[in-house]
Amino acid sequence: MENFIFLNSLLNYFKSLKFNIIHMKYSLFFCLILFSGIELSAQSLSGSWGFQIDGKEITLYGDKISNHNNGGRSGTLKVAVYATSYPYNGGAINGYNLYEYQLDPLDAGYYYTDISNTGWCTYPPSGSYSLTILLLEYNYSYEIVDYVSLDGYTRF
C-alpha cells in the first residue's frame, strides 16, 4: 500500500510539474504577443533649434531629428512652432500654431540633419508668448514626441 501512495504522490507531482511548465509556456507566449505589438516612440530633437521671422515668412531650423528605435520606422513627422501663454513643459499643448512642415518617416537608427524650412507665418493675437518647437509623429493622429521650449517671451 505504501508503494501505491508513493507512486500516486509521484504521479501527482509530475502532473503538477507538467501543468506548471505548460502554464509558464503559455504565459511567456502571451507576454511575447502583448509586448511585440508595442512600439515606443523614440524620436528626438537634438542640438540647436530656433526660428527667424521676416515679415510674413518664418524660417524654422535645427540641428538633428533622430529615430532611436531598434527596428521599424517612425510615422510621418512634423516640426511645428507654437506660441503659448506660458512655457510648455509636456502633455497637451494649448496655443497658436505659427508654422509647421512635414517630414517623411525615419527608419530606425536614421536621422535628419541641418533641418531648415521657410513658409508663411500665422501670427497669434497681439501679446507676449512663450515659443516652443514641437516634434510630432503620426500614429492614428499627430502626437507630440519631443519639444524644445525657447527661453523668454516673444512679442507679436
What's this entry about, in short?
The protein is 22% helix and 45% strand.
Can you lay out the helices and strands and say which pair or pack?
Blueprint: H1 2-36, E1 43-54, E2 57-67, E3 77-84, E4 96-103, E5 111-120, E6 128-138, E7 142-149, E8 154-155
Antiparallel strand pairs: 1-2, 2-5, 3-4, 3-6, 6-7, 6-8
Describe this structure in words.
- With 156 residues, the protein is of the alpha+beta class.
- The chain has two domains: 1-38; 43-155, Sandwich (Immunoglobulin-like), CATH 2.60.40.
- The protein has one helix and eight strands.
- The chain has one helix spanning 2-36, and strands at 43-54, 57-67, 77-84, 96-103, 111-120, 128-138, 142-149, 154-155.
- The strands form two sheets. Strands 3, 4, 6, 7 and 8 form a five-stranded antiparallel β-sheet that branches. Strands 1-2-5 form a three-stranded antiparallel β-sheet, with no helix packed on it.
- The chain is globular.
- Residues 22-39 have low confidence and may be disordered.
